[in-house]
Amino acid sequence: MTNIKTDTQNPPKQIILNAFDMNCAGHINHGLWTHPRDQSHRFNELSYWTDLAKTLEQGLFDGLFIADITGVYDVYQGNIDLTLKESIQLPSHDPSTLVSAMAAVTEHLGFGITVNLSYEPPYQFARRFASLDHLTQGRIGWNIVTGYLDSAERLIGQTGLKDHDLRYSQAEEFLELCYKFWEGSWEDDAVLKDKANRIFSDPAKVHAIHHQGQFYQSQGVFQVSPSIQRTPVLYQAGASKRGLTFATQHAEGMFIGADKPEKIKQQVDKIRAQAREQGRDPHAIKLFVGISVVTAETDELAQEKLAEYARYASPEAGLAHFSSSVGMDLSKFADDEAIPYQKTNSIASVNSKFKEQQITPNDLKAQLQLGGRYPLIIGSGASVAEQLISLLDETGVDGFNLTRTVAPESHQDFIRLVIPELQQRGRYKTAYTAGSLRNKLFQTGDRLTAQHPAAQYRLDHTEPHSGQQQQSA
Ligand SMILES: Cc1cc2nc3c(=O)[nH]c(=O)nc-3n(C[C@H](O)[C@H](O)[C@H](O)COP(=O)(O)O)c2cc1C
């Protein structure tokens, strides 16, 4: 009796689950596109994505998170030959083009879409995502990235990758301007659609925004009326000092790139402490860690499946991908040579591994063969469920980004074998909650709360569109 009461008052934390994917063949677990059952070569077909969205919704996934890069991986061996042969995120297509089609065949699945803010004006981006928030009925999220590839700068026609920390300063201003568009231009009841009086939108309730900053200037009314969430759910993966300051100020979901439970926990504690210092509720940021899972009916069968998958994996492609992440050509080192730390302008937090540990190309190839940079969890459904629950409880994360191995088989296996085990243990929902992606994640309504920095750009800071204009920023 007492136990039942305690359980009801303090139900165990339920796992939030995103599928982690990219609009390409080779995403994280490189080489598996060659597996006879893998379908990822069909990534340019709409039915590949609409089928995936339906599958994920059957498994009650909270979201499909789609990574993206601008640029190509040309650091390894100084060219793109292996990148092309192994399809290491090349070709890769724009992820936001997939959303409307997937939203049409689902009702609850959220979409976390990566967009690099360095290469487009905030206005164009804000308009596209506000439009998507309308069409998905409040199910869109944005993974904020600033880019780390020199190849992107060349493709876009800019010279030299901006300094790592300066990229985050630009991101701050980009967000501020987006908040003005999303939160500060239209009042909630501006759209009347009043046919009898010929008033679609009330001119008194649509306001010009003004922005004059270091990187951006804009003034005028936003073209999109208020959507369910207004600001999409904000995801970020900053891990460096500057990146963490940015993310803990703005993000509602953060991705942790570590592989060992103790490292993940360190990062979780750091993020929650920093969020508190920034005046935010530390639990207003949901924390996710990437995982790869190979599961089958028994532990033994799962090990056999892993061995079978591994035959198709390409550890060298993993190393080539890693070379671009750290901005260093790792083909230049002997297989058993410790890679020295060099300061680069790429992903600071990944590169810092070379400072902390002696790592050789052979170590990286072994680690990157399957599972990539994430914990690799193998076993029967019950065993995987237990391992996930331990990882969640031990580290304090809120959920996982599940990579694909053999697509779509690995997600189907997870849904068939692992989800029922998690549900039996009370650690996974048995039905979706209503409302927007934000409400599903936080149960605090569809909009950002008053504690979020975006709230300061709400309408009391703007003026009617035809009124006297004041500069802000
Ligand atoms: C799980 C995860 C997913 C990421 N996805 C992307 C991505 O899709 N595109 C991208 O350019 N960077 C991506 N990144 C890299 C981050 O944007 C960021 O550069 C990285 O986490 C390091 O942060 P730092 O710049 O503060 O060192 C991802 C990082 C993590 C941990």
TrEMBL record:
Domain Luciferase-like: 40-398
Keywords: Flavoprotein, FMN, Monooxygenase, Oxidoreductase
Molecular function terms, GO-annotated: monooxygenase activity; oxidoreductase activity, acting on paired donors, with incorporation or reduction of molecular oxygen
Residues annotated for FMN binding in this entry: 68, 114, 164, 168, 240
Membership in a protein family: Belongs to the NtaA/SnaA/DszA monooxygenase family.
Xref: NCBIfam families: FMN_nitrolo
Name the UniProt record assigns to this protein: Monooxygenase
Organism: Acinetobacter pragensis
Lineage, highest ranks first: Bacteria, Pseudomonadati, Pseudomonadota, Gammaproteobacteria, Moraxellales
